[in-house]
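Look over this record before class:
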Amino acid sequence: MRIGLILGGGGEVGIAWEIGVLAAFENEAGFKSSSSDVIAGTSAGAIVGAYVAQGRSVSQLADLERLGQGVPVGAGFGASAATVGSAAMPTIPEDILEALMSTDGTAEERAAKLGALAVQARVGLNQSTFVRGFRDMLGTDKWPDADFRPTSVNGHSGETMLWDRHSGIGFADAVASSCAVPGVFPPVLFKGDPFIDTPRRPFSASLVKSTSLDAVIFVGLILPILANNNEQKEELVQEAAGRGLATVIVTGGPRIGSVAANLLDHSARPQAVAIGLEDGARAAGALKALTRN
């Protein structure tokens, strides 16, 4: 059975929560996320997916999160971005926030508008410092051997991009581009195009088809500000109904509301990982059933 792992966005809270879910999968169901045939991740999920693709122990990562020792997203950005990864995260400019909330035009048109705003926005980091912070966090710029696909959006065309080790872009650049929130972080330029973290077209169906997957595990918080996660989940539900695709979908249990007020608050990560461990344990039975087939 070919299994795909799709990890959604969710900020600092999402990173810790997803690590907790995956650690519970390993501890309660004996499923190692690194054994997935393809791993796709968006924003927070790109960071967690990178760790998984590198073969890092999610159980050890969960232990660090519980102790408050999880690495903040901005740990390597330097003094000019000292507030990144804390409750004092820079505010998204009003014009960009308005564009992010807009429903006018196609998804690609909205993304292209955001790309133009992102290129013009004044932020506290340049691309070199931004990407170097991710390189420090990941420990390398070498792509892992696993089939890992961090997602981003071309700010010129609005096209959703799933990078892989054959794309020609550096590993750290690819993961950074998945987290390049317009107006907060700089776009990541590749071959003259700016790549940013903005709403994506759902890609689950195309990924299932192109990689011949038999089953998909989706881990992503479903919250009003994380519309992309819900769209990915809904597309997977449709795929399961239409193609008989086997799925395990984990979207956050009743306690997630206690850490959902500020997804960028690094101090909430110990609580978020504990909730993730609970939510993953609840899904362990379904995961065992899937992997037995």
Remarks:
- The CA atoms of residues 119 and 187 lie 7 Å apart.
- The radius of gyration is 18 Å.
